[in-house]
Amino acid sequence: MTKRISIRDVALRAGVSVTTVSHVLNDTPGKRISDETRARVRQVADELSYRPNSVARSLRLQRSQILALVSDEIATTPHAGQIILGAQEAASKRGWLLMLVNSGGDRETERAEIRALQQRQVDGFLYATMYHQVVEVPAELADSPVTLLDARSDDPRIPSAAPDEVQGGQAATQLLLDRGHRRIGLINNFHDIPATEGRLEGYHRALRQAGIQPDDGLVMRERSDAVGGYRAGLAMLDHYPRPTAIFCFNDRMAMGLYQAAAERGLRIPEDLSVVGFDNQELIADGLRPGLTTVALPHYEMGAWAVETLIRRIEDPGTPSEQVLLRCPVIERGSVTPPGARPSG
Amino acid sequence: MTKRISIRDVALRAGVSVTTVSHVLNDTPGKRISDETRARVRQVADELSYRPNSVARSLRLQRSQILALVSDEIATTPHAGQIILGAQEAASKRGWLLMLVNSGGDRETERAEIRALQQRQVDGFLYATMYHQVVEVPAELADSPVTLLDARSDDPRIPSAAPDEVQGGQAATQLLLDRGHRRIGLINNFHDIPATEGRLEGYHRALRQAGIQPDDGLVMRERSDAVGGYRAGLAMLDHYPRPTAIFCFNDRMAMGLYQAAAERGLRIPEDLSVVGFDNQELIADGLRPGLTTVALPHYEMGAWAVETLIRRIEDPGTPSEQVLLRCPVIERGSVTPPGARPSG
DNA sequence: TCCGGCTGACAAAACGATTGGGCAGACATG
DNA sequence: CATGTCTGCCCAATCGTTTTGTCAGCCGGA
């Protein structure tokens, strides 16, 4: 392992001082250095393929160009990848790096991890939680720039990005309305998380805008997995008059609904249209027919959070924003107009 | 934002030199400092809640206690979370931090990212690829400690961790044999990746050990998704004599097989036992009945890779090892003895 | 008294960058 | 010739640690 090239080596070989090398390579404004010298320094740096040591620079500048993503268990969820990817690519595009830490939900390890990161001179934090919700930011982070991910704070000074659940629920329902459905069921989640209420509200809004009075008999709540979807599905399909379309809280529940429909001898989409939520490709692509669903903007959230965080680190005056990102509908094959004959 | 406490502050307040504080807090061996002074220093450090600045330490020590996980697209795959989580927790347990970078598969950005990380004094690299395979380590990494993840190298000096596909295939097949099945089909992947061949070999081995001559008519190859599983499933179920059990290359194909079985009016597991691979919980838990499958040791791979890497950083003499990690069978409800009556 | 050895600490030099404040020399001006 | 201004560059301090080498004081032995 050969010794790493330092700025001193470049200076020596170019016959100038370390100062000059630094000024040249950083294009320090207001410093007068002849074009000749500039060229020579640059060439030598190139020849030696000199790369400045970021640790030394961090120490001197008191900033590291490193962001930390700390989360409870987010790395465990199926979508984690997209959040992390969005954050990582956004950081990398701007020359920043990303550190990853997860606390497993334990508040005490969380504090310890955050302190470790602060000792590393991390410049800012992304704080992400598993289910988007109102969140108490750890006291340790009070002095550091923070952006929330898939969560928001009561404190408006803390920027955050989360999915627009209401818009997503409305879009899903609107799609069914646009195809001509009037009796549209909702198989909702049992737990009171923001997604549950948001999607319900979106469903209601779409119906009302279409002049349809929401019918509580068409809304069920169950465990948010395939078994829950199956049970609620059976109940709803046996309900009379049966809905021609059902919007499911998520794709897992939709998967259960497919099973229930098969059991009742109903074909999708001819006899029943289905829309899911989450765009879990494993499920949505795997079902027959493919599941039309609503995608969560995970990648976008990660990217937005990083961009916002960097902006606020570089210019602390930037106003805080709490955004809700659009959830787009992803069409596959589980929606047709009611009473439609199979097309092919 | 109050000024951070430095070692100088501690020294000042304890009435000793910076040197002494350092010795005390690091328990530098061979340094004589009275118990009295030790106690005082520690107490002051505590009072001020002093945390050494790791950047300065990294600069001085020329090591950062930071590992980098660089991957092509691994963060995109559904399992990424587990690998990352395993790596992160193992690192954290030892006081190390993890940086994350992914190249999107582009060799050029990969080089750039690696250089950026080396400028940051990263002490070692985990290099992970999407599908485990023999891999050429980028030249940039030649001088740094590296461990491969979900991949291996032709160079035995580079340690690696990957799933033991053969053992996994064998375990899946053995489970079916143990339940009394003799005609066991295999719906394999179309692509020649290590998983394809490994799982096939495991299947063959288990059959031979049970004294069964493998029948090529019972092995099909298809696209490794639900559609592929569906098509191969139909073909295999129409095959005569029909197998009583089928081992699928992965859970997605098994999902397709469920659909094919339903279409032929066959019940799982009464009429057909099914074993998958990957333990994609979204699918395996979502199907009815739950899918018995083989889990990939993603978490363990991440953890093992970090432990190995750290060991080799701290003691470069540690011999290199290329390990294959066990893939355990996860039983759910898709396997019964052939011809069994439904139990309840 | 002088010397050697031990104890308990400290000063200063790194590590590799950035940056504020000089300081020579060239040239113009009066 | 003295003075002033500008150009082009460099010195040295700094960021917060670790570590090497040194040193004052004390005690015991000759």
Key words describing this protein structure:
homodimer, 344 residues, alpha/beta, 434 Repressor (Amino-terminal Domain), Rossmann fold, 3 domains, six-stranded parallel sheet, four-stranded parallel sheet, elongated, DNA-binding, transcription cis-regulatory region binding (chains A, B), transcription regulation (chains A, B)
Structure, explained:
2 copies of one chain form a homodimer. By secondary structure, chain A is of the alpha/beta class. The first copy, chain A, has 3 domains: 46 residues, lambda repressor-like DNA-binding domains (434 Repressor (Amino-terminal Domain)), CATH 1.10.260.40; 133 residues, 3-Layer(aba) Sandwich (Rossmann fold), CATH 3.40.50.2300; 131 residues, Response regulator (Rossmann fold, 3-Layer(aba) Sandwich). Chain A contains 12 helices and 12 strands. In chain A, the strands form 3 sheets. A 6-stranded parallel sheet of chain A has the order 2-1-3-4-5-11, sandwiched between helices. In chain A, strands 7-6-8-9 form a 4-stranded parallel sheet, sandwiched between helices. In chain A, helix 1 crosses helix 2 and helix 7 runs parallel beside helix 8. The model of chain A has no long low-confidence stretch (mean pLDDT 93). The interface between A and B is large, with 57 and 57 residues. Strand 2 of chain A pairs antiparallel with strand 2 of chain B. Chain A binds a DNA duplex (30 and 30 nucleotides) through helix 2 and helix 4.
